[in-house]
Amino acid sequence: MSTAKNRITLAEGAAAGILRQTSVSHIGLTVPDVPSSEAFYARVLGLVSQGVLPDGGVRMGWGVGHHVLDLIPGESGLAHFGFEVRDEDGLRGIRERLLAAGHSVADLEESFIDYPLGAPSGLVAVTPDGTPVHFHSPVYRQGENAADPGRRPIKFQHTTIGTNDLEPLVDFFVSTIGFRISDQLADGRFCWLRSDHDHHTLAIVNVNTRGVLDHYSYDLAEWEDFKSWCDRLTELDVQVQWGPGRHGPGNNLFVFFDDPAGNHIELSAEMEKFYDDHVTYVPRRWQPVPSSVNLWGGQLPRWRKTSETI
Ligand SMILES: [Fe+2]
User: Fold this and answer.
1) What is the mean pLDDT of the chain?
2) Fold identical between 22-136 and 156-309?
3) How far is the CA of 54 from the centre of ligand 1 (A)?
4) Are 153 and 232 in contact (CB under 8 A)?
5) Could you tell me which of 57, 73, 306, 72 has the C-alpha nearest to residue 188?
6) Domain 22-136 indexed as CATH 3.30.460.20
7) How far, in Å, from the CA of 51 to the mean position of ligand 1?
8) How far is Cα 240 from Cα 103, in angstroms, rounded to an integer?
9) Span from the CA of 266 to the centroid of ligand 1 (angstroms)
10) Which pLDDT tens digit goes with each residue over 232-276?
11) Which of 123, 141, 269, 301 is deepest in the core (most CB within 10 A)?
12) Where are the domains of the chain?
């Protein structure tokens, strides 16, 4: 692989309306055994089944309110991922920029369990890797921002997608959708993007295959919660796969474990915040060494590579 080919040279926000109040909404995963994945997410993360999908999958969330996770029958993979757009005229701007850039746009047609705000409106675009990405209007989620350490995280926080061609994907989300670059590895293999105050709501990493989920992340309130969660995971016979540690980009605490389909789940806290109204920020370029993605000693999981370890 040529790292030079994947080096990011984009002028961030050059063409897009900048998103400042857009957060992660939901994710759809294809899994080979829906009942076992459903049982795992109920047992480990406290998600509640909200209904059966037309294709035989199951929709899960935290009680009444918008869903977090769709589990869809199929070979293990990423079916779609979504964002909640609270920026004024944000959805209209995204639609206009997608069409102006020659992308096709479809209306989001889903029946959401979404008391009391009603079903959101939205659109579906397709990333350069061919993955559907949803953008929709504000929704209600029950219990979000209420910590219950060891039993349920606060909220779904970010999605990290894997690709073998990073630059078109970063360009799509920055120059067309309206994300901003917060950080990147200097070899262009990893890029972290923001769309609200959090350092990243989306990240993109080169994993030598396209259209895949690298990992996704749920928020915890604080460091003390990591002790409760690691003890709880041990009680549930779920192996911690990486961490606890602290990332360089984002400065967030992390611990990782896997779901039954092999998806990597991150629990995270203390993510760096950006207040773009007050400062001008130049994205940093972190060295592609293990200690950048794990400040505490540089240990890596078996599935994470940096240029230094390739
Ligand atoms: Fe992450």
Assistant:
1) 88
2) yes
3) 31
4) no
5) 306
6) no
7) 28
8) 40
9) 6
10) 999 999 999 998 998 888 888 999 999 999 999 999 998 989 887
11) 269
12) 22-136, 156-309
